[in-house]
Fold this sequence. Notes:
6-stranded mixed β-sheet; globular; 15 strands; 15 helices; 6-stranded parallel β-sheet; about 45% helix; homodimer; about 15% strand; alpha/beta
Amino acid sequence: MKSYSLGNLNEDDLNRLCRRPKLDFESVFSQVRPILNEVKEHGDRSVRKFTKEFDGVDPNPVAVTPEHFNSDLDVKQQRAIDLAMKNVHRFHREQTQPGLEVETVPGIKCMQTTRPIERVGLYIPGGTAPLPSTAIMLGVPALTAGCKTIILATPPDKDGNIPTSIAYIAKKIGVEKIVRAGGAQAIAAMAYGTDSVPKVDKILGPGNQYVTAAKMLLQNSDAMISIDLPAGPSEVLVIADSKANPEFVAVDLLSQAEHGPDSQVVLAALNGFDVETMTQALESQLKKLPRASTARKALENSFILQVETMEQAISFSNRYAPEHLILNCDEASSYTDLIQNAGSVFLGAWTPESLGDYASGTNHTLPTYGYARMFSGVNLQSFQKSITFQQATPEGLKHLGPTVEILAGIEGLEAHGKAVSLRLQALKKVEG
Amino acid sequence: MKSYSLGNLNEDDLNRLCRRPKLDFESVFSQVRPILNEVKEHGDRSVRKFTKEFDGVDPNPVAVTPEHFNSDLDVKQQRAIDLAMKNVHRFHREQTQPGLEVETVPGIKCMQTTRPIERVGLYIPGGTAPLPSTAIMLGVPALTAGCKTIILATPPDKDGNIPTSIAYIAKKIGVEKIVRAGGAQAIAAMAYGTDSVPKVDKILGPGNQYVTAAKMLLQNSDAMISIDLPAGPSEVLVIADSKANPEFVAVDLLSQAEHGPDSQVVLAALNGFDVETMTQALESQLKKLPRASTARKALENSFILQVETMEQAISFSNRYAPEHLILNCDEASSYTDLIQNAGSVFLGAWTPESLGDYASGTNHTLPTYGYARMFSGVNLQSFQKSITFQQATPEGLKHLGPTVEILAGIEGLEAHGKAVSLRLQALKKVEG
């Protein structure tokens, strides 16, 4: 891993370090666009065609009910999934916003309330291993929010089946249909709807660059969908002070690096942290790792930043805006107020990122690529929208009406003012 | 206005009625793309060029501080604006989410907290009249949320000035720079940043199709911004029962229709509502309206739907998902639970839409075009993101760790499991 000392870096250097590997949006868009258009036009037929081409299987029908799949897990795995689901449910249930009611002026009541988004599509990436954790992280909040129609899409295996663990979770959350496809074609099927795939209002979930590009293009299209967030490669920033155990830091860096060759791993090391022992631990742990070659590639893009103080480390982290931030330091929770931009934060020596990836209760679908500056991770509100209400009494209208008439006058919108004046006149008449 | 009877319509008819005029996204995108690219490359120089071309004025420098402009209002206007700002502040302040802390299992604490988005850009459309109300609706929540850098863009007049009312509001909310430009060039300047315009993280605000297209394209670009929502032409759905005053209904329809020729106006009339008197009132009010020709054009695309019950009316409204919904009926507040998809709702005879447009306290930047199915209107959270935190005690890790090890095993992510195992081993050692 490259190493820099904060004191030797200028503003430009810092910005360069914070820049992620350049994504060529336009070139991926141009590869994905024809797939979206074909699925829009030909529906299931195109989804089957592309799935045959990319995944070597022809799912027919494309979408089936969860009952179609085996969901028998061994007891240990079932218990682990059940506990993770319970924790995620607990934490997301507490995010329920109570209805709001405010009397802004006497006789004018303003309210805000939330409603579930009716139909949601959840994308669970496939690839080298099943990702039941993502099914939990998207499915549980969808169920908690009260979404009526939950569709789940994930790439099938050569027999058209999906992983047992995902089928188990899908049944538990009441998924209506499972789309046996991945990639841009799966996203398009849920966005436009096909004969077998119900159309959804919002699509959530991580995925490779084709999946992300499909979501981004479709949110700007006549499919009329929204998306959770633009997801890029996963990343972690670890802040380690002199008391941090080098073995723990090494394994936390590796547990990010093993995600993919494009993962970003950053270590901000305070004075006194034993970088040398950490580097040795990293090397010896790497040797035993099944995904060592993946992790090694990720580490090539990664770096260590030497800093003097926790404040400097967090200030750099706020600039970088990491998806995951680990504070492996003394009194970690005393620094939370300083953290401005991050997806999810892991406090102290005993809180590895994998706790949150799987089971603590927080969501693991988080903003990457610096998007933590303006996006939240997936949460209960990702599956809801809010509606405002207002109600005026005659007294309220008399109180606030003249203000509205003046403002409508400034904007030259006469009927807007008239909607008040006509009512005020009617009230005057009644009151004689 | 065309008129339909719900009983005579089938599913296809209903869907057709709910469909808004087709927006040709792709053709607007292709007009806007070159503007965005030019501003990205040449900054202020291009913004000036396009502003000269489209607005007939060369703003130099493009962005200036609010002090640059006259903001002396007459006392009446100032008081009206102050009261509107106060109400909007009151309602949005109450949307502040208290931090969340949940112990999901003993020793595992999960937290969620919000942070302001640091730099936001607010777009205030120009055109036929100043729109101070939009400056209030975007500026007040930005200030309430604690955004550090607030940039406001609005088209200048021929002398490079902006409306006094907007300058007044900009000073009150502490706007850092006012971008004297409108259209796609203004959006691009805020998204990429220029010599005079600070780069922002999120862009909010309504606008014409070029502004909306620019926001949509830039949210998918290397500018790394997010947007509030895709905004289309304004719309209202009025539900009127037999007790509704036809004059009130007529003026409410007109106050939507006068917005623009592409405004959508829908009346769901219950049995007994006097449609004939309403139609006559509409005609006679129209004659006196300065923006009559605009309103008349909007009414051409609009329709009346005859329904039997409130439930039918609201069910249609949920399918239509209107930006504004007026329940001009008896016991209006008893129907709120049925409403699933709407931007903002106006309850009862004494609550015209213009109350919420200007001063009740709710936000008027709302989802149009059916996007109320999955988008909220602008609210305090539009200017914030949330961060999650978690902290495990050694006991918490011992409790939840084995679950994480099993789940990491299913996914084949060994280092994820190891991040737990190494720590559990260390704990065992210490405890001997």
